[in-house]
Structure formats: C-alpha cells, structure tokens
Design brief:
The chain is of the alpha/beta class. 42% of the residues lie in helices and 16% in strands. It has helices at residues 15-37, 52-68, 86-99, 118-124, 136-143, 152-163, 183-192, 207-211, 256-260, 273-299; strands spanning 2-3, 11-13, 42-47, 71-76, 105-108, 172-176, 196-200, 216-219, 237-240, 244-246, 249-251, 265-266. The strands form three sheets. The chain has a seven-stranded mixed β-sheet. A three-stranded parallel β-sheet has the order 4-3-5, sandwiched between helices. The protein has a two-stranded antiparallel ribbon with strand order 10-11. A hairpin with a 7-residue loop joins strand 1 (2-3) and strand 2. It is globular. The model has no long low-confidence stretch (mean pLDDT 91).
Length: 303
C-alpha cells in the first residue's frame, strides 16, 4: 500500500500498512501457539552498550512484542562499557539463553562494541533461535535456497518493494553498503528476484555514477544525507534503510526532500523500512517457534 504523491513528486512507500497485515498474522499465530503450549513465544533482545539509534529500534521491537502477544525480554550485558570482560559476559549470556527452552528467539544489538568479536557471538547463539540470520548456518541455507533465517532489515527492503508493486525482475539495482546484516543480504535477495545488482561501499569511486544508472537504489550506509536527488536517475525507486539521530531527529541516509523530486517512489524515514522490519522479525520468531515445537516432538519419537 502506498500514499498518492503530489504531482511531480515520488509516491511514498510506507511500511506501516504492510506491517499491520503482518502483525495481525503474528498475533493470530502467537495466540494459537500460547493456547497449545501453555506459554507465549519469547523473544530476548540482548543489549551490549547503549547507542541512541539502536535503542530506538530495540524499544520498538519490544513494543511490537506486546501488541502481537509475544513475551519480549531485554537483557543488558554487564554495564555496557567496552571493558575487557564484556565479550565473555555476552557469550555467557547467549549460551544461557540458547539453552533455555522458554526462549524462542534471540537478537543481539548491532553494531557490536569494538571489543566484541562477531565470531564469538556466532559461536554462542543457537542457529534455531537466530531469527535475525547472523549465524553462518542460516546465511548459508538461505543462499542455497533453503529455509534459513535472513536478517529482518534486508528482508524488509525486498518485501516493501514487492508488496508495493515495484517490478524488480530485469531492473538494475544499486545497494550502498556491504554489511553482513543489511547490504549483502539485500543484494542477494535482489539477485534472487532477478535484478542486476551492483554493491557500492566506502571504497567505491564516483558513487554518483553508479546510482544515476540504477532503477532501484537501496541505501544502507549509516551516513545521513549521503544520497541526494542529483545522484539519482529520474524515476528511480529509493529504499532508505538508514537510521541516524541528527539534532534529536531520526533521519535516513538519503536527502529526502531532494530525492523525492527525482524518484518515482521512496521510503520515508521514519515510517518506511523500520515498521516492516519489526513485523518481519516477529514473523521470523513465529516460524522459529513452530520449528522448535516440531523438532521437540520429532525427538520424542512422534509423527
């Protein structure tokens, strides 16, 4: 669903209406799960150092848990200071949560503190509870075409295009950002949808040359105002994944006012990818919950 745009301006690709549909499905699934199992599915959000943009995202996830009938829990590791023991505390917490049968899904605050190695987190988290797809098992399964979990933000970038009626097949797409949790999985999903994809990053020369040739531009660089209208091909579709706090306001990686004069469709920040990311993350949680129940039943020798 989209909002009609004034003449000469891009239409808004709003995530809210799409997210509402997904939340309704999540709530129905959670209610059924709770009735059958005697307890709700549970999502644990692990925080290791507070940063403003990430805490905004995490608070919204916990609020979404409440509305969908999911037990949302916040676990803060140590005091959030980047000391030498912070990684050990985080790994211990993840081991405990992974072995807790009441925990359905686990997500870890991103980005990690400099003193925390991603490999340590990966080794400590149960792939069956890794609903945001950071574990190599999930990433590998997904890339091979199986049912591995994919990072929810990357999933949202494609979902908002498809549900808004944007044709992806045969289009030229540029993804700005190569992170393992947004940029690269978004690029892979665009390829699976039959787009021709270029991934740009901080070492890319003449970024504007690439973006001006793109029919679809996905921006996930973490730099406010990085992409302007002058850098876009007329009629391009822009998906802004950025969440930046500037002067007390949340803004994206795209200069919205100038980009909307050139693009045919654009996601606002806030209100675009964000609401959809939260809804999809909880959809992943419900998929994990049903799988865990099926695995438990199978291990007991039942059909």
């Amino acid at each position: 669903m989209t909002v009609p745009a004034p003449a000469g301006m891009a239409r808004l690709l709003e995530g809210g209406p799409i997210a509402e549909e997904i939340h309704a499905s999540n709530a129905a699934l959670a209610a059924g799960f709770t009735a059958r199992q005697g307890h709700p599915p549970a999502l644990v959000v692990v925080v290791c150092g507070r940063t403003a943009p990430s805490m905004v995202y995490l608070r919204r996830i916990l609020a979404a848990c409440v509305r969908d009938g999911i037990d949302g829990r916040l676990v803060e590791v140590a005091d959030g200071e980047p000391g030498p023991d912070i990684e050990r505390h985080l790994v211990e917490a993840l081991h405990d949560l992974s072995s807790d049968p009441t925990v359905t899904g686990i997500i870890v605050q991103q980005p990690l503190l400099p003193s925390v190695h991603l490999r340590a987190v990966i080794d400590a988290i149960d792939p069956a509870k890794d609903i945001d797809g950071i574990h190599p098992l999930n990433a590998g399964l997904f890339r091979l075409g199986y049912e591995g979990f994919v990072p929810a933000t990357a999933h949202a970038t494609i979902e908002i295009l498809q549900r808004s009626g944007i044709d992806i097949a045969g289009r030229r797409a540029v993804v700005i950002g190569r992170s393992a949790v947004v940029g690269m999985p978004s690029a892979f999903m665009l390829v699976k949808a039959d787009a021709t994809v270029t991934v740009c990053h901080r070492k890319t020369r003449d970024l504007a040359r690439h973006t001006r040739e793109a029919d679809i531009v996905v921006v996930a660089a973490g730099r406010p105002g990085l992409v302007t209208g002058a850098m876009l091909k007329p009629g391009a579709v822009v998906v802004d994944v950025g969440i930046n706090l500037v002067d007390g306001h949340i803004v994206g990686d795209v200069d919205f006012d100038s980009a909307r004069q050139v693009a045919s469709a654009i996601t606002p920040v806030p209100g675009g990818v964000g609401p959809l990311t939260n809804a999809l993350l909880l959809a992943h949680l419900m998929r994990a919950a049903e799988r865990q129940v099926a695995t438990a039943v199978s291990s007991q020798g039942f059909e």
